[in-house]
Amino acid sequence: MLQVKNISGGYQERKIIENLSFSVKKGEIFGILGPNGSGKTTLLKMISGILPVKSGTIELAGKPLSAYSPKKLAQNIASLPQIPTQMFDYTVWETVALGRYPFQTGFFKRLTGEDEQIIQKTMEQTNISHLKNKAINELSGGEKQRVFLAQALAQNPVLLLLDEPTNHLDISHQKIMLDQLKNWTQSNGLTVVSIFHDLNLASLYCDKLLLLKDGKAVAVDNPSVVMNEKTIEQVYGVSIVKQSHPELARPQMLLIPEQKQEETYKVTKRDIVQTKELIYLKAASPLKTLSSAIIGGGFGWHSTFVNRHVDKSYNCQDSRSEMADFLQKNGFDQHATVAMMTAACLEDGVVSELEAEGVSVVIVVTAGLSNAVDAANSIKRNGIASGTINTWILINGRLSDQAFIESVMTATEAKTKALADEKVLDPVSNTIATGTSTDSILVAATQKGIFHQHAGTITTLGRLVGRGVYESTIQAIQLNKKRRGRT
Hints:
CATH architecture of the largest domain: 3-Layer(aba) Sandwich
Largest sheet: 8 strands, mixed
Structural class: alpha/beta
CATH topology of the largest domain: Rossmann fold
Helix content: 25-40%
Distance between the termini: 77 Å
CATH superfamily of the largest domain: P-loop containing nucleotide triphosphate hydrolases
CATH class of the largest domain: Alpha Beta
């Protein structure tokens, strides 16, 4: 649909765009990114034909822009610039109707019935029909943005050029507008080239991205390639972290604000409070967490950690809501808490602290074995009995996401080894148990101090986690056996 080949140009003798090439297929949304002054708006003006190229060519539908008459170009390309500060006092209807001007014929240039239908349809699609009789100067910035989008769409263009289309829009209308644009590209074959300042919105909605710096292409590719941490940091001069969107296969960039050097917070064994009803920790500052707990599962940041005792007869259809109510009644903020439960006696819980080579961890394990199960033979089970092994791994250090996951693997291997050495059996399969069917785990890190890329058993951190979980689980199992009168 659009071919940009080795173009250079700018204003008078000042070259803004230099030797730029890319292509956009029909039905794609193509995003242009770059810091202020990188040439984004200049490029858009060159594509629209407003600003001539000094060298190179721009082709639309296989024809150079120079081959189109001004009227034909206006029929094929619509532009939505940034909202002007001064504008005529037209009504919304009159403003949108200007989009049909390139199609009007005759001396008086009157709207046809077809024109009016198109105007009405685009106003409905952009949710501005209720504003049709209002003066454009009476509208908010977001409403004006939608009016000018409707004007551009009223042209029925094959190529739509947008300069920061979500500017002045709240988050709801940003989503509505971009969802509509995506739908139009897919259903009508509309091709969109748009400038974005919001990298994450561009990543979510664009099929391809162009990253500009000083008028030159740094990268032209799909979002997963262009949204590279090092590349974005070099172009924008900011610290960022790249993460995956939780629902879509699209990268998202998170800004890292400049922070003053804070005193390193260290979790110790003395911070753990252990009673008959609860084992809990209230940290001085939030820890980054990975957990399978009822409350606070997945990745997050939490400052309170709770392991709650429940009776063996506990049976609740909505344990999450029940746990949330329990936390609230007992003065815990559920949004800042990782919470799990067990029927095991919390007085038999084991708290240990290990340190080596400047790395320190605190391990907390509670063990109930009546629900012991061999994972390889769990298909033979029909129900869930009471009994849970809950494990906390509290790390004084900075962990990569990879290290969080490796910590879970290391801890699981250590727990399984402890069960084997203590000859804990699955009563159904009569084989060595690997855990219980309701085990929970928490890995929490202060994210201060030594950085750990890995936490496998070959690393210092992994060795501490493995030894700590193994020894604590052994001790917790032995205490549980003793309480149940077994050896």
